[in-house]
Design a protein that fits this description.
There is one protein chain. The protein has about 160 residues and is α+β, with helices and mostly antiparallel strands. It has one domain (about 5-150). It has helices at about 1-10, 80-100, 110-130, and strands spanning about 15-20, 25-35, 40-45, 55, 55-70, 140-150, 160-164. The chain has a seven-stranded antiparallel β-sheet with strand order 4-5-6-1-2-3-7, with helices on both faces. Residues about 160-164 have low confidence and may be disordered. This is Str. FM013.
Length: about 160
């Protein structure tokens, strides 16, 4: 009984992972694959600090998985890179769901990162590495996987752009 009483005052936390493109301390683009459902959330924000903290979510760990060079002079943006990553995540997830009885809500965060988020991001990065260099402006951005704790099962920003 005491444990139940204590739990009513202890905030619950939900683990999750983000794919972030950009430098901390500046504007970053974020792709969040919610582990409890089929939603992919995307947003951008300017971070005043080097640790991700936004909308009740707090960074627990971070891993830089690479860097991507975008042909910004040709109109390529961080958002178009995330569009590509999102398409790859959906394909990997659909292939996985059709070949097994995997349920999205039962997947652990580390499995989501290993099976979907990181392979999709690395494929998109490697595809861009093989291109000819643009004669126009290019910009290189670091790409991170950031493990977070959310205060509850929900999307992070209050005014999200999400793609179910």
């Amino acid at each position: 009984m005491l444990a139940r009483f204590k739990n009513s005052f202890t905030p619950s936390t939900t683990p999750s992972a983000l794919l972030i493109i950009g430098k901390f301390g500046a504007t970053i683009r974020v792709l969040h694959l919610l582990p409890e459902n089929d939603t992919i959330e995307r947003f951008s924000l300017t971070t005043p600090a080097t640790t991700f903290r936004h909308g009740g979510a707090t960074e627990q760990a971070r891993e830089q998985i690479g860097a991507v060079t975008l042909h910004v002079g040709d109109g390529e943006t961080a958002d178009s890179f995330l569009d590509d990553v999102e398409t790859r995540i959906r394909k990997l997830r659909n292939d996985s769901l059709s070949s097994s009885q995997l349920q999205i809500g039962s997947v652990e965060v580390t499995q989501l990162v290993q099976d979907f988020l990181q392979p999709a991001a690395l494929d998109a990065i490697h595809e861009r590495e093989g291109r000819d260099r643009s004669i126009h402006a290019t910009q290189t951005y670091p790409v991170f996987i950031v493990y977070i704790m959310r205060s509850r099962e929900r999307m992070i920003p209050t005014e999200p752009t999400s793609f179910p």
